[in-house]
Amino acid sequence: MPLSKVIIVGAGPSGLLLALLLAKAGIPVDLLEQATGLDNNPRASHYTAESCIEFERAGILDEVCAQGFIPDGVSWRRLDQDKTIMVAVRNTPGPGGHSMVCLPLHRLGMILERKVLKQDNARIFYGYKVVDIGRPEEEGKAWVKVERKGTEDEGGGVTEVREADYVVGCDGANSTIRRRLFGDDVFPGYTWDEQIVATNVYYDYLGSCGYDDSQFFVHPEHWHMVARIQTDGLYRVTYGEVGGLTYDQLKERQPAKFQAFLPGNPTPDKYKLVNFSPYKVHQRCVDKMRVGRYILAADAAHLCNPFGGMGLTGGIADVGSLYESLVGIHTGQADDSILDVYDEVRRRIWATIINPISTDNMRRLFQYSDPDEAMEKDSFFRMIKEMQERPAGAEAATKPGLPSLRYDMTQHFR
Q1: Name one Pfam family in it (predicted).
Q2: What is the pLDDT of residues 329-366, one digit of tens each?
């Protein structure tokens, strides 16, 4: 029987993308977001070729490419006077013939929101906070209880219940859906001792100092990443800090950190700091991404550190697999047991690909005493270096590729 409605909780990029894909497939969607609008912070975003496949399927890839840009690649560097390149990988076409594209996440959200609102069978409700869900073992419909701001005639806040065939939690790391399913303190995994500070900054010298569009710096104390995220010269600078410091302590240390590791050793009068966001870093994944008629995707289901974009790419891959699963149910090509396959596959991909690779991505930046030791002991660096030393033409033929984060659920259709 065709689906009558899917409720998606969370209007971040994953929730918006899933809503657009389902609506275009003829499935009615309600998208509930507790905030009063999109998050407009210019967060850094690099979308892999695998993500571009999903954007193409949603009909937004051309617009993403037009508003963003194709970065030149990524390098790993020494924190010496010349910021010497250790190894580098160029941005060449990958799956589907797509190259990585860069566009800040809030601008992707704006594209998706506009497309969703054009769908006759999709609605976005801002200011709707989910406070409870039905019991997963209940037969029939799933439901969520929401609080919203009421009109003056309604006397203030209003609580209501909304029903659907399925409820999908795309509501981020602090997911209410996950907490209602498993408890407030249940999210298997661990939190890194190291802390991350993400900043967005305009610093003119970065555009002329010989940097690539993206680079990581290997250093036991001042490990960091610098990436261009907008064509107007906005950069994302993300650096590691010792754990246990307060927000105020981290903010006080920021100028000295920039002066220690950015080219030109700038003082605060030389750059414009747009955003400053310290946060803890996690490697976590739920034990189940499907419980009855309640499903989790992206950060609501799993987390990893930001170095390498595995979390964002993995979340978009979740959306692609879940979209195919729900369409299979809607069209009668699959029964709802396909959601158990979705659960198993997506958690396995996190455990065998996303978690180990993202962990290595972060750890290799600071675990060695110096870059020479890193080049000697790190298997990834050795592999890239061997590639670069091969004869011309051989490098392209043997370019390393990540194991696929996408999974084709249609192979489980009847």
Answers
A1: FAD_binding_3
A2: 999 999 999 999 999 999 999 999 999 999 999 999 99
